Amino acid sequence: MGEGLRYTVVGSPRLDEAVEVLRRAVFSKKPLVLAGLCEARYEGRAASEAEAGDKLVIVKADGSVIVHGLKGFKPLNWQPDTSYIGVESVEGEVRMTFVRRRPREVLEVRCREVGFIAVFESPVEGGYWMFLSEDEIRNAIASFPREVLGEDLVFPEKERRLREAGYADLYGYDSEGRPVIVEVKRVKAGEEAVRQLLRYVEKARNMGKRGVRGILAAPDISDAARSLLERSGLEFRRIDLKRVYGLLKSGRERRTLEEFLES
Amino acid sequence: MGEGLRYTVVGSPRLDEAVEVLRRAVFSKKPLVLAGLCEARYEGRAASEAEAGDKLVIVKADGSVIVHGLKGFKPLNWQPDTSYIGVESVEGEVRMTFVRRRPREVLEVRCREVGFIAVFESPVEGGYWMFLSEDEIRNAIASFPREVLGEDLVFPEKERRLREAGYADLYGYDSEGRPVIVEVKRVKAGEEAVRQLLRYVEKARNMGKRGVRGILAAPDISDAARSLLERSGLEFRRIDLKRVYGLLKSGRERRTLEEFLES
DNA sequence: CTCTGAATTTCGTGC
DNA sequence: GCACGAAGTTCAGAG
Q1: Which of A91, A131, A156, B199 shows the greatest Cβ crowding within 10 Å of its Cβ?
Q2: B216 has which bridge partners?
Q3: Are residues B116 and A55, on separate chains, in Cβ contact within 8 Å?
């Protein structure tokens, strides 16, 4: 409040006021929220229609548009990226048109009653982190194979972090020098994960590798997937996410200590 | 406006006011929107943290919670279904806690500044349709195989609408009596679609069927998928979505006419 | 309950 | 740009 105007909230605006406020926000690329009795129509990769009802329309500065109904997590309509936004008053309604070029999609929102419009006048962006991703589990396996998978494995390419299309998560060797392919899943593994691993193992065998082992590493596995895995001669290793988290945390601390000693 | 209070909008509320308004809305299961300078912390299947910044928090009557930042289509944090919602004031902040039992997940949103809170007092739910789903394309193929796929096929089981796990979209026979399996994709088909079809065809062959044909029906196909498909001895049929839409529409009109004649 | 597959999936990354 | 794979995927249907 003392830090200057952060939000403009207009309650029950007239048609022309609503259009004016929306146009100003869209033109100056300020995020906005509109609530009201609206209909929505989408045409593009599919086609859909949302009947008149209370909707919440969110328009962000990057051009993403989200139309929420009163129920559920998923939006009724949306547009992840728009190339054109139009605001007009047509037949006593506020009409917003959101066009995306590629793929060609059009989202039209018509509001016969606008409850309020809120504009973020001086938006403050905050950072965002997510931890314990699949990639971090992969790193934990590469760094601590004994602790996570229960046997000593060597992964010469463990620094290759990004997964190329058609390549498994980890390629390495066991203590007897046999090639080992590890497929990592952060959640319970299904049949698709087994088939994926099988493809990589067969590809390696076709390239002339001998005695290739395939290991599926996941917190759990479905019965059907387990069955397919055993029929395919592959192995399953259960991983303990809490343990992995602990290993990574200690790894981080160690790294921090090393950095400290280097300084 | 003439129809009674539809929204309550409170701008820049004090801490205790905000808590009061939020509690009342949550308790009476009214949808609400809050905008402000907030942080969010999630712990459950993964763990994430959103730093202080402008957030839009949406809480719906069914318990779904969505936290949007200033960018992108996807929410920063969410909870599709909550079993507990808590609202308190802690250390000069509004703290909302959203708990989900299964899977066990906790989302905590702390707001150090509340720009506004809007409550939908008498929500109006609107209907929703989506058309031209994969299932409708499948129906069009079953009803008009010549028009969509360019040859006369017969699908004895075409009325089975729901796809069971491990079963292809359509089983039928061509004009020479050979079994035909059709896999339908509403969007450009990738390698995964070809592998799926191949599994179904091989399953049918293993069950003793002879001369089984596999047809992948989609608006387009990727190069890699086309290559895999040809190596696997499967067929591709390009489908024209506009044509399918037209066929279904005429089908609907016909049905309506029949209904009219029956009445 | 779990499993399976679709989604206007979106999103990132490699090519 | 396209393609492939992950996602706190969500969601709906079947067993």
Answers
A1: B199
A2: B183, B236
A3: no
Nucleic strand D within 7 A of Cβ B223: yes
Whole-prediction pTM value? 0.92
Residue tagged 């989202």 (tokens): A107
Q: Return the number of CB contacts < 8 Å for A and B.
A: 173
The letter for the amino acid at B7 is Y
Copy the structure tokens of residue B205.
């062959």
DSSP SS3 for B141: helix
Q: Which CATH number applies to B134-262?
A: 3.40.1350.10
- The reply to whether A48 touches chain B by the CB within 8 Å rule is yes
Q: CB of B121 within 8 A of CB of B7?
A: yes
Scan residues 128-157 of chain A and list those with Cβ within 7 Å of strand C. none
Nearest one of A73, A134, A62, A135 to A100, comparing CA atoms: A62
pLDDT tens track, chain B, 263 positions: 445 789 999 999 999 999 999 999 999 999 999 999 999 999 988 889 999 999 999 999 999 999 999 999 999 999 999 999 999 999 999 999 999 998 999 999 999 999 999 999 999 999 999 888 888 889 899 999 999 999 999 998 766 555 666 677 899 999 999 999 999 999 999 999 999 999 989 988 988 899 999 999 999 999 999 999 999 999 999 999 888 888 887 765 544 434 444 43
CA distance A177 to B246: 61
Question: Which two tokens mark B203?
Answer: 């399953």
Q: Is A216 helix (H, G, I), strand (E, B) or coil?
A: strand
- State the Cα torsion A22-A26-A30-A32 to the nearest 10°: 40
Question: Is domain A7-120 annotated with CATH 3.30.420.40?
Answer: no
Instruction: Report chain C positions within 7 A of protein CB atoms.
Output: 1-11, 13-15
User: How do the domains of chain B map onto residue ranges?
Assistant: 7-120, 134-262
**Is A228 in contact with A195 (CB distance < 8 Å)?**
yes
Nearest CA in chain A to B67: A73
Protein B175 CA to nucleic acid D6 C1', in Å?
43
